[in-house]
Design goal:
single chain, 608 residues, 16 strands, 3-stranded antiparallel β-sheet, Nucleotidyltransferase, domain 5, alpha+beta
Amino acid sequence: MTAPKPKHHDFDDAEQWMKDRWGMTMSQHIRLGQVVPFEVAVHETALLFVRAGVEGRVVCWKKEDQRSTRGRKSHISETSVLMLMFVTMRAKHSVSIQHMTETAMALTTSQRDALGIVHFTPHQDTLYRRIWEAIKRLRKLTDRHPGKRRQRMTESERRAVEASRDKTEMSKRHSRMLELTNLLIEGSISFLPREVRRRFRGAAAADATFAEVSGKQKSKKNLKPGDLVSTNYDCGWYSRKGNHSASEDPDGIHKFGWELEYLVMTRDPSETEASYPLLFLSTSGHVPGALVGHGRFLWESARDRGHGISTLVADRAYFPNAEPEDLQRPLAQAGIKVIADYKNEDHELGIQAFYASKDGRHNLIMVTGNWYLAFMPKALIDAEKTYRDLVENTKNLPEDERKQRRAEAHAILRQQRAEKSRYRLMPRSGYDNTCARQYSYPEFDDPEIPDAATGEMIKVTIPGKTVKIPGVLHDKDGKKHQKHIKYGQEYEYKSPVWKAWFGKRNNIENGNSCLKDADRAALGVPMKRRMRGPWIIEMAGAMAAATANLSRILDWLKVRLALRNMNRMSRTSAALFEPGVETLTVEEHDRRNAFNRLAKMEELRLLT
């Protein structure tokens, strides 16, 4: 009996998708990429830029800033230099001007035409200067951190450069840069067939990754009058702890650079099939620790480009560290489910908020992001903090004793989590525009429970079936707050469903690791992006994400097109996607490889 195929097996459609989106078959793509990689990179770049509409936006920005049509005409346009940069990233995993120049010198006439490089020069030094001039014009449109970077300067000179920047102009450039970098990502997403894109259920994960820069830099506390600052003076010191600002961890190990934010697709834990690849959706960048507003932008940018987000998973830097007005409140109003974690602190693992209605009927507390009946025993309220404190206090014990005590404590914690669910109110609706939300009371069969303070038995009273908790609450002093929006999340903390969802953060951690891999996008290698300033980091970060998307889509299609079992040893074999792979001979292999004809060209006959 033949086993049933998965719902989205796609075997019959994948080849046509490849032809529609890439204009070639998978085996053609592999053979071309192995022999003439620039041909494939230029082909992909031309398609991506047309689909993303980059040239139209750049031309529009130039017209907005143009004061006159007079002056010397450029040899290379801003769009062409962007395309050349993307080809270099795709083929050489670099965005340095040296590598871009070498790439341009190696291109064929038709490849240069496809990139719009119509005023070519055979002199490499001249071409280098033309590329640099085009980059400077592009930066003038989109770089919000302009300034001289050829030589290091003093701290006072750096402050003068920052003071000379017009805030309105820099804000405009910032908006353009965000639009440009996310257009590049959107262009790469367009290689995924629309039918497959529609399968995405809206689960996404957000995270930041650090990109180190080259050059020396002293920390501010060690900077003396007359000392020179880094040529990357707009970047900052990064720490692994807290919000990643060095001020949060003064005694830790710090690195100097820039942070990049990404939003990446993930899957609903109920999805059992890889029915679509997990792609980067949006990006932004900032100095380490300055996270305000970026989480919201990532979501809004993806939403505005048609990628509906229904669930967002993120670490503590976003949830709960962000202010409600900056992130959690807009997400709640949009109906997006939040999956969050907490620090081992009283105000995060204990009672986070309370609600007592004016009529005295409702008395509730929020613990680890969910609403519970206020008479829930204190041992259950403090269960998470008690366990984490024990873990901290057993660090210096002998290994056997430490493992035993932690195992015993964790067994108790699991029982307490199960018991705590009895007191939990279940969401009955989404948040409204004021962030108010309706909840259902649990069915509580026990007529009496022991009082947490005295131990005496008290009567249990459930005031009704439902309760609507306002979007703004008052603390004990009558001060308004939104702590329940700040700390709230959709699922019960550390429950099986929460763990299944929070584990999906691994998708973005894996994605960030791939972007930094020297054999992939090389975002973790500063010397692959020798230009200075945050601008090139954000541009390289967007191009790295876009090239990663192309690779992920291709890998996803390969799984559906392979005619025999595929693994890391065989996935780059063109024969794997061609008929007759099981009985393939050497003669047939050589006959299929049309590039064997190149060996007959006199210019390529190096061996006799």
